[in-house]
Amino acid sequence: MWKYIFRKGLRIMTTFILSFKKTMESDSPFSISPSTNYRQHVPKNAEQLMKENWRRTGESLCCAMKKVGEEIESKQE
Prior knowledge:
Number of helices: 2
Distance between the termini: 67 Å
Helix content: over 70%
Structural class: mainly alpha
Largest sheet: none
Number of domains: 1
Order of helices and strands: HH
């Protein structure tokens, strides 16, 4: 059992190392960092972040109160 697990792990690691080596030796540029700028979606300051969070909280509370109100009205009928 352990021999099988060891051979399987050894095969996986060997494949990983060889593919990584091929990637590093290739002529194409290798970049670990993403090319997409995710920082554009992050608020610039804490005040803007807090306002957005409170806006979403208010919308969620309003939606929840409407649902509860509809449930109460349907039970009374």
